[in-house]
Amino acid sequence: MSLASRTPMTAEEYLACKARFSNWGRWGADDQLGTLNFITPEVRRAAVALAREGRSVSCAHPIQTRGVQPDERRNSNPADHRMRIGATGSSDYIGLSYHGYVNTHIDALCHFFTGSADDGGQLYNGRPLSVLTEDGARSNSVEHWRDGILTRGVLYDIPALRGEPHVTFERPVEGWELEAFAAAHGITPRVGDAVLIRSGSDAYWAANASTPMQFPPTCPGVAGSALEFLHAHDAALLSWDLMEAPDQGFADHNPIHSVAIPHMGLPLLDNANFERLSALCAELGRYEFLVSVAPLVVVGGTGSPVNPIATF
After folding, report:
1. pLDDT value at position 74?
2. pLDDT band with cut points at 50, 70 and 90 for residue 118
3. Which fold has domain 11-61+104-311?
4. pTM for this structure?
5. DSSP run (H or E) holding 171
6. CA neighbor of 103 nearest in space, from 123, 80, 137
7. Distance CA 42, CA 61 (A)
């Protein structure tokens, strides 16, 4: 496997990349940031300079309450939104299980393990699973990202590259396609980038409305070779509208999650909405921008709902 040879990742290569792409110890034994360490002050300043037009766009879906998405095939565990209307004002309560395939969220580094407790599984940077308690995670949790994520974002618009409405099961997004898209648009991948991969989620679900959204995933997405691209260019963050493709011949159902989070220390921002961003990139003729993400400060949390903002 290599980006140059344009060959899909084999099962053996997938297993090997867990050690090959590992960042354990790279930033010291106490590290809680993972690949967010790549976002230095210099990287932030360069990213801010990309905000030239003063135009911003959200990359989030609405929180998926039953009112927003009533179809149980797409929203089997809807967010709970309750209103209280008083004489002089209103308030509300919202509760949600944000992990999964519906709500836009970021995964903390305690979300995926290297394996189960029975086979010696660990968290990123070699931390034991015993740090996970019913009261939250005592390490690798989302509050360590309270200062936010501010860096250069690059949208890799694969349907636009292929001239198709969405990617397919037969042709998941390969790492060399990310390189091809960058080359086609004069983009040089940089250390500390947020890599945003558009697979065409809206178009896929519009054409497959009767398909339930469930685990293991029932939609196409990104191939394992994308891991090599992320590692080779020291990406800080991966965000996507469709996650990893199923049935790649690997033992793990979520192969990119299972390498990126516990081995690479790479945060994943799942279920993004890139439709408006794609349109704005095409209008402006550029696919790089300032991206900002502000996770909630949930002490011990395994992640957070987020509203990523791209600014041009």
Report:
1. 77
2. confident
3. Glucose Oxidase; domain 1 (3.50.30)
4. 0.96
5. none
6. 80
7. 31
Confirm if 305 and 103 have CB atoms less than 8 A apart: yes
170 Cβ contact partners less than 8 Å away, ≥ 6 residues apart: none
DSSP letter (8 states) at residue 143:
G
Q: What percent of the chain has pLDDT over 70?
A: 99
Q: What is the DSSP string of 112-138?
A: S-SS-GGGT-EEGGGEEGGGEETTEES
Backbone angles phi, psi at 195, to 5 degrees: -95, 115
- Beta pairing partners, 238: 195, 268
Whether residue 216 has a cis bond before it, omega within 30° of 0: yes
SS3 label, residue 153 = strand
Residue 91's DSSP bridge partners are 84
Tokens of 152: 């250069």
pLDDT of residue 1: 57
pLDDT digits 0-9 by tens, 11-48: 999 999 999 999 999 999 999 999 999 999 999 999 99
**Cα three-residue angle 234-165-1, rounded to 5 degrees:** 40
Residues facing 150 on adjacent strands: 292
Among candidate residues 266, 263, 260, 262, the one with its CA nearest the CA of residue 244: 260
Buried b (16+ CB within 10 A) or exposed e, 181-195: bbeebebebbbbbbb
**H/E element holding 228?**
helix 226-232
Exposure class string for 123-146: b at 16+ Cβ within 10 A, else e:
bbbebebebbeeebbebbbbbbbe
Q: How far is CA 229 from CA 26, 139, 235, 241, in A?
A: 19, 28, 8, 18
- Side chain identity, residue 182: A
pLDDT at 216 over 80: no
Q: How far apart are the first and last CA of the chain?
A: 36
